[in-house]
Amino acid sequence: MQNKNEFVRAIQENEALIYKVSRVYSNSREDEQDLYQEIVYQLWKSFGSFRHESRLSTWMYRIALNTAISNLNKEKRKGTFLPLNEWALNRPDSTDLLREEKYELLYAHIRQLSTVEKGIILLYLEGKSYEEMAAITGFTTTNIGTRLGRIKQKLITQIKK
Amino acid sequence: MELEEMKSLWGEMSGKIDQQKKLTDSLIIKMTRSDYKNKIMKIFIPELIGALVCFGAALYILFSLQKLDEWYLVVCGIVSVLILFLLPILSFNATNKIRSLNILANNYKQSLLEYSKGKRQFIFVQKLSFYLGAVLLLTVLPVTGQLIAGKDLFIESRLWIWYAIGYLFFYGFSKWVFRKYAKATVEAEEILKELENG
Could you tell me if A120 and A136 are in contact, meaning their C-beta atoms sit under 8 angstroms apart? Predict the structure, then answer.
């Protein structure tokens, strides 16, 4: 029970992280919701083996990104997730439509990147250091720098279009 | 939108989400439970049914081989049995490789490598299964004709008409399936190339 309470707290403290990973790797609300639940499920399955050797959020990013990749292949399984009215996906509540459009545009630019690049830009935007990014992704810090440079160029071209 | 502007917008949006805290305790607990067992079963059941049908048909032909009185029918029977056993095994192995991604131990790069290699193998196996299916169509028709209707279709009917109808359908279906696989192959290859190029 203690374990379950700790898990619930961990999820609540990091729910934004799960939401952002789900949104970057999904093309529809249904897929997003499905991936969100899958990430929570995988986190729960792995929670017992979390050894506190790294920060909780670092560990969560790793599991969340791996789940997103394993989910790339899955067919849509409509009706298998919790119904939408039971939990509102935590999109930022905003009455400012212009702001909302800007957020959507931001996600749209990220979704146009390759699968490899999506994870790197996500961690960069989350303000992770190169060392943390290396720990999560398995790329060297130099490689991350190079890749970020390329992503930047790609985004500039994309935005100009 | 520059990268720095993106970062600041991202931070602003993250702040808003952080304030909302929409997930309740009970909802999180629900997400850790039963639905996923159902979900996994939903993927496994069609595959299991397919495998049982194939194995059942293979065993039926295998135990009825003595009823096939011509050498060419026996050859068709043996080939059909082999393919019917091979198809589900190949398919299960390939799907399992993608499914068994080590989410806990892998880092992002390892997961991407495993996923792309698994996907490449999966597509190869799917194509191979498709060709095996075409051969099965060729061999299983005369066998079933003999076993079920007691007729040697090579002699007593215009088997070529059935083959023509079957392969016409196969041709159309293969065009549709392979177009789908071509896209998936390109995606998997692109990920691998991107990882190899550093």
Answer: no
Name the least confident of A1-5, A26-30, A131-135, B129-133: A1-5
Among the partner residues A69, A81, A127, nearest to B112 by beta-carbon distance: A69
Global confidence as pTM: 0.79
Cβ <8 Å between A127 and B11: yes
Contact between residue B135 and residue B170 where contact means Cβ atoms under 8 Å apart: no
Work out the minimum CA distance from A44 to partner chain B, whole angstroms: 6
Cβ contacts of B75 within 8 Å, gap of 6 or more: B139
Per-residue pLDDT tens over the stretch A105-120 = 899 999 999 999 999 9
Tell me the percentage of chain B whose pLDDT exceeds 70.
92
Q: What is the ipTM of this complex?
A: 0.81
